[in-house]
């Protein structure tokens, strides 16, 4: 954020996460460094129905801002628990689904499993809407979407874990979407084929180098070998686990794949 401000960008923060909770208050203080903020969720608990469609109107407002260079952060609730509260009533695409789900789930586990998939469908709709609205402005820029963590929802054998546990990690807890959309103007000015980068092994802990590569920044400490979009990128070990326990980190690639059932 500060890097973009130093580069002359007007900065914006749009969030649909709670602003004053034990978990988010520090992030809210951090967000005050931007030039303008939109706090769309005044709930005190995550288990409340505040849909990510809340961010679409302020996003359009920011797109209409006359600043020549803009850096916009959109912070979504995404697919956080409680999954059923992440999408509007009547939009549970996988309600009562029994196809391609792990065997042996209880009724409550099956409901959570299907709610999570429905929440992901709604999340896809929000991301598509943001891209559509951005594209409509005929921009010279890019949109990068990613999650800060994954979620285990009964996919990994023995299909009894929901949520995240750094002491007992699974691939689903650490596997996240990482999507880059570039405008025609930006692509014309920066002709690059990112299709070759899709299967690179990468950790979002190196994001600042990838962002800097896309933004065209160079500075002391910038390392293109740590930017997934750079031709100079080099794969390294992706350490995961509990950073507060001695010798607790493990190589992500050492985790078993499981049976991968239920990828709907």
UniProtKB/TrEMBL annotation:
SUPFAM superfamilies: Alkaline phosphatase-like. The keyword Membrane applies. InterPro entries: Alkaline_phosphatase_core_sf, PEA_transf_C, PEA_transferase, Sulfatase_N. It comes from the Bacteria. Pfam families: Sulfatase. One of its GO terms (cellular component) is plasma membrane. Residues 2-216 form the Sulfatase N-terminal domain. It is a multi-pass membrane protein. It is found in: Cell membrane. This is UPF0141 membrane protein YijP possibly required for phosphoethanolamine modification of lipopolysaccharide.
């Amino acid at each position: 954020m500060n890097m973009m401000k130093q580069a002359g960008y007007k900065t914006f923060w749009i969030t649909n996460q709670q602003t004053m909770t034990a978990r988010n208050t520090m992030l809210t203080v951090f967000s005050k460094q931007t030039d303008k903020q939109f706090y769309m969720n005044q709930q005190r608990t995550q288990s409340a129905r505040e849909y990510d469609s809340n961010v679409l109107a302020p996003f359009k407002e920011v797109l209409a801002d006359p600043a020549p260079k803009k850096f916009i952060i959109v912070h979504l609730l995404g697919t956080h628990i409680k999954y059923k509260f992440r999408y509007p009533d009547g939009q549970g695409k996988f309600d009562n689904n029994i196809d391609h789900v792990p065997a042996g789930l209880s009724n409550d586990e099956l409901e959570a499993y299907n709610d999570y998939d429905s929440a992901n469908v709604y999340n896809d709709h929000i991301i598509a809407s943001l891209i559509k609205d951005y594209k409509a402005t005929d921009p010279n820029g890019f949109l990068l979407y990613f999650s800060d963590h994954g979620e285990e929802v009964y996919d990994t054998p023995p299909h009894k874990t929901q949520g995240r546990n750094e002491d007992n990690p699974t691939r689903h807890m650490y596997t996240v979407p990482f999507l880059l959309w570039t405008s025609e103007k930006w692509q014309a000015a920066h002709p690059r084929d990112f299709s070759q980068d899709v299967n690179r092994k990468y950790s979002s802990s190196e994001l600042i180098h990838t962002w800097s590569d896309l933004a065209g920044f160079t500075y002391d400490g910038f390392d293109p070998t740590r930017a997934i979009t750079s031709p100079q990128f080099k794969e390294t070990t992706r350490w995961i686990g509990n950073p507060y326990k001695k010798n607790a980190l493990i190589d992500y690639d050492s985790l078993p794949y499981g049976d991968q059932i239920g990828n709907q």
